[in-house]
Amino acid sequence: xxxxxxxxxxxxxxxxxxxxxxxxxxxxxxxxxxxxxxxxxxxxxxxxxxxxxxxxxxxxxxxxxxxxxxxxxxxxxxxxxxxxxxxxxxxxxxxxxxxxxxxxxxxxxxxxxxxxxxxxxxxxxxxxxxxxxxxxxxxxxxxxxxxxxxxxxxxxxxxxxxxxxxxxxxxxxxxxxxxxxxxxxxxxxxxxxxxxxxxxxxxxxxxxxxxxxxxxxxxxxxxxxxxxxxxxxxxxxxxxxxxxxxxxxxxxxxxxxxxxxxxxxxxxxxxxxxxxxxxxxxxxxxxxxxxxxxxxxxxxxxxxxxxxxxxxxxxxxxxxxxxxxxxxxxxxxxxxxxxxxxxxxxxxxxxxxxxxxxxxxxxxxxxxxxxxxxxxxxxxxxxxxxxxxxxxxxxxxxxxxxxxxxxxxxxxxxxxxxxxxxxxxxxxxxxxxxxxxxxxxxxxxxxxxxxxxxxxxxxxxxxxxxxxxxxxxxxxxxxxxxxxxxxxxxxxxxxxxxxxxxxxxxxxxxxxxxxxxxxxxxxxxxxxxxxxxxxxxxxxxxxxxxxxxxxxxxxxxxxxxxxxxxxxxxxxxxxxxxxxxxxxxxx
Amino acid sequence: xxxxxxxxxxxxxxxxxxxxxxxxxxxxxxxxxxxxxxxxxxxxxxxxxxxxxxxxxxxxxxxxxxxxxxxxxxxxxxxxxxxxxxxxxxxxxxxxxxxxxxxxxxxxxxxxxxxxxxxxxxxxxxxxxxxxxxxxxxxxxxxxxxxxxxxxxxxxxxxxxxxxxxxxxxxxxxxxxxxxxxxxxxxxxxxxxxxxxxxxxxxxxxxxxxxxxxxxxxxxxxxxxxxxxx
Lengths: 587, 230
Ligand SMILES: Cc1cc2nc3c(=O)[nH]c(=O)nc-3n(C[C@H](O)[C@H](O)[C@H](O)COP(=O)(O)OP(=O)(O)OC[C@H]3O[C@@H](n4cnc5c(N)ncnc54)[C@H](O)[C@@H]3O)c2cc1C
Ligand code: SF4
Ligand code: SF4
Ligand code: FES
Description:
With 587 residues, chain A is an alpha/beta fold. Chain A is built from 16 helices and 22 strands.
């Protein structure tokens, strides 16, 4: 069977903030760039980001990038790479100005500057008073940024392949990545996109858990593609549970609510965060707040009929502030929790939210893999940026407002690096037919008929198992049992079948393809978590309650072959300033 | 609870048909939950959806004759039996999935991006809170298409009339004090069709899930044209 093909200088898989910011650099430099997205670009999940993006603009309170850097290193529980963090915090400032120039409708202060709000884990002067560092467009910052980036890409005439699903990366005879095989969802026909450089910007994988703030499309496809290409995933055990998802549903209520002065109470009306984090209280780091909520509920102080959630109170802010700064939250809470926050508190519980780990990259978005003892090597022509990547700026726990920053900074830098790369490597490598066949087999496998496990059933079982065994608190026993069960489900995958074999807009087939990705990525989380015998950031083990810098201040690397683990050192040396040595993390 | 949905698969069906499904309702169920339940029973049923919270704009459908976003439409607001069809006036690809190409083309045609001709400042371009307020009710559009596919003028002149969603975005940039392409934007909207086919029928306002008001924006563009002597 001959597969049609298209040629570009650069292929970007993913049209969220990371992919679109990279594309904008490339298209503006007249590099031929294709952006492939399984949904129309503005439907990417960056659209859902609410609270804002961090940059030390000092528009509201004194601030500078070095304080931002300190907070990020501390927030990461000292697992973040300090060179990448310094770089991101410095770049934050020009990046936000560039976005504003591109048209993002940021909220404004009376003096006409960008509005900034307080978010968790932010301080002035290296751990002093609360800072206000999060630049916001009301509580729709992600929407404002994503739409603006798409709009600027229209201006720059980027080539878009909307509603095309990337199946797998393809290689040349020497094993060098040379593009990807994609599926046009509307027609069900495959298409080979050949490119000199490929950027994975496929976003998060929250769908591996049953209750999540992530959209239906966040299935970790890029991470799974990397795994299948033999690339390890880094620090996957660090999965963030956001403290305030709408109870039982998972939709997010931004940390900005607490930044604006809202707070959490238990069934007795007690502001319990005062007990867990006397200083920062409700604006302690996310891992701390999530654990506190789960503890309150476990110890019988949860609200509601079943005592299984906590209340987020903001009525004291007044209708005017709520309508001006948090209009989207009011809307969501009314629709999904049946509570109007102007009058009543919102029922909340932690929800699976954000992958700190991902495809390992350097600070130019280039994918790196270990070679031999301690050293690393760039994978030629392969880049990753955004939530699917791990430049290691979040370490063991991400601060609110730092992810939009991460996707924008590293998306932009990856774009710039690709410009240089394609100039230095002007010739397209030819795709190895064997590699193409392998990618095709992922698709044709679903043409098999006959009985078997329904794919959607397996998807549901897998997500439930992940939630039960790799959640907020993790013990050896729970995780070991979970790992076994996940392996069984992985084995069942070969018997998974579809009943619908039609071609045109077959969404069951797309979901089945995603299922394979969910399984690969879910296992990377479970296996990495099982191996790490300490508590650090989002990875919390009651059986190893302390952080263990002697044995565990290192990055995990998970390989798909035989579920193998490897480790690499944390980069503690910043670019220009002194390094921040690990300290006990109190808020 | 019975739901009747529009079914059409060009691979297998000669012509479209309605198919009934029995779905068990639950407290707080949205129309999207019901459609997902149908998909569980019958995986051949296709519809677009993603965020589940009314921000991505994927799951616009026509329920009981009115365009809406399935994920923020409680089934209790729909009288039974619920009848779900694809957006009217758009070519159907499969089941509830329609071809929105033309809708996006009109959006792109209004040059929906900020144009600045002055040199850029080192920091942000300043904008007063009052000027920023002028963008409220405009920038929040999620391009779901509920409005344009409910607009009779868009049904009749889909090639030439930009439709409410695109015109709302045209106004979003005209209203932005930072934008410096007012004349070009107005120039481009001249003529009997692109803008002037709107007969203020207000269907668009009635269905917008974000509570936006394209009719008002269209009126404001017309006012500005008069003011500028177009
Ligand atoms: C509800 C919510 C609120 C948040 N709020 C904030 C906030 O206030 N501040 C903050 O800093 N961060 C926030 N975050 C985190 C942040 O929004 C995300 O981490 C970030 O937007 C991810 O961007 P991305 O570009 O990496 O991916 P996404 O925006 O998820 O985009 C992924 C893209 O990849 C495409 N894709 C995926 N797989 C395939 C495939 N197989 N084939 C083709 N295309 C594919 C998708 O179509 C999409 O275009 C929030 C997250 C959530 C869920
Ligand atoms: S008011 Fe204008 S744009 Fe809106 S539905 Fe009527 S004709 Fe269409
Ligand atoms: S104006 Fe409203 S209905 Fe129209 S596309 Fe935008 S959000 Fe949807
Ligand atoms: S699923 Fe995103 S708007 Fe309904």
